[in-house]
Fold these 4 entries.
Entry 1:
Amino acid sequence: QVQLVESGGGLVQAGGSLRLSCVASGIIFRINAMGWYRQAPGKQRELVARIISGGVTNYGDSVKGRFTISRDNAVNKVYLQMDSLKPEDTAAYYCHILTGGNDYWGQGTQVTVSS
């Protein structure tokens, strides 16, 4: 069974930075995509950033230029460096992978940005 464990969330002031980490275990297939989504109360889950096959990165429009995704393939880890955080970045952040034709999600880590 594939498991994802996130860490690094917390409370930060606007303009500050946080780094999220996610480690995947139990993977037996090639990872086709690995990344981060977020969901704020009353809103739909949205893409933050992901790395797909070939190392191509995709970012949500609202985080371009502020967030950076990276991945360590050797240990199945993905990171999200979040800089210049804004109150509207407040949400639960979920790690996601697509492997073996299946989607897997982490339990989520809360990021709260105070104004």
Entry 2:
Amino acid sequence: QVQLVESGGGLVQPGGSLRLSCAASGMLLSLNGMSWYRQPPGKDRELVAAITRFGVTTYADSVKGRFSISGDNAKNTMYLQMNSLKAEDTDLYYCRSILGVRVHWGPGTQVTVSS
């Protein structure tokens, strides 16, 4: 059974940094496309960053140059390094895996950027 568990969220001041982790079990990170999404209140989930199993990365325009997605196959864990955080980055962040038609989501971790 595939399970994704996010961690690393919390409260941070504007300009600060956080690193989110997504620990995967029941699947191999190296075989899946992995991504981070966030969901503003009352809105649909939006893509933040993605990484293919070949290591190709994609970022939303709003986070380019500030966020970095990576994976550690040995730990079966994906990361999202978030720097220069802004108030508008406040959201619930989810990790997602996709392999063919199989899509799995984690429960999410809250990131709040506020002074």
Entry 3:
Amino acid sequence: QVQLVESGGGLVQPGGSLRLSCAASGSIFSFNVMGWYRQVPGNERELVAGITSIGSTNYADSVKGRFTISRDNAKNTVYLQMNSLEPVDTAVYYCNAERRGGIFWGKGTLVTVSS
């Protein structure tokens, strides 16, 4: 059973930075794509950033130029570096991993951007 564990969330002031981590219980080589999603209560979960097994990335327009997704295969971990955070970035951030036969989710980590 695949487990994804997010960490790194918290309270940050507008303009600040956070780095989220997603640690997988096994090798991430088997995943075709991994990504970060976020959700605000009452809204649908939305894709923030994704990274494929060969390192191709994509971002939501709202975070382009501010967020960077990366992966460390040796540590079985995917990161989301978030800079220039804005109050609208406040949400629960979820790690996602997909491969043939399954889609997996972490339990989420809360990011609050507020002064």
Entry 4:
Amino acid sequence: VQLQASGGGLVQAGGSLRLSCAASGSIFSIYAMGWYRQAPGKERELVAHISNGGSTNYADSVKGRFTISRDNAKNTAYLEMNSLRPEDTAVYYCHLDRYSGGYRRYWGQGTLVTVSS
């Protein structure tokens, strides 16, 4: 399984960005996807997660500002980020949890989001 993340960049505080994570390979039909982030000097933290059935959960710090969605036909997850704050600056990593054929988590390469004040 390969994950290709895109959409990061530099944005001013209050602005918006949309991250994409496209999955390819032996995904099978049952999987969840999500995003973590890691800011300089901090541990990686969960940002948002979407289950195979479409249930979502978010970190408290992004609730009401970020929205995760998925397009099963494209095997792609999206993270719509609005009202961005400087503290959202981090490298964002997407992941895919595959459940068919035994559980395994896959990670994409990070994409840098920088929010200027």
